[in-house]
Amino acid sequence: MENRPSETGSLAETILRDTREQRPWTFDSCGVETRDVTLSTGDYAVPARCRRDPGTDTYHPEFAVERKSPHDFLTTLTWNRDRFVAELERAAEWTRPLPVVVETSWESLLRGRGPAAWRDVHPNQIVGTVSAWTRCYNVDFRFTENRRRAERCAFLLLVRDSLLCRIDER
Fold it and tell me: In the CATH scheme, what architecture does the domain 14-169 have?
């Protein structure tokens, strides 16, 4: 694997975005560029926290953010559990938990509003699964009011990790 790319500024100037993102965040209001690549884990990462495998042209992050729309989050809890658990297992050895930023509030999910209402997912299933995954895996769920706040939350998590990484290196 290649070494990590270097960053020129005090914070990341580029955010790597997984090519499989269905409705990608652009981070337009954050003053950074995005570059579409294949990430092995997560949906968004910074180049300084990735190793690139030139054979597969895949980036393997040491920290990344996973984006979940409300619909995708509920699908993850029900029909696509195995795929998501595999993602959680890939992040098991990371120094910091994999943040999963959900584009809806915890309250909306538990009150059965929006996708939870038409997906017929009981609030106890949501609470139980999130609780179990938080205990068993290196994951941290972040629920936000809407898509825009979720994007801002992800950006701040990536910046925070970059800063903490620099402190850890001292």
Answer: 3-Layer(aba) Sandwich (3.40)
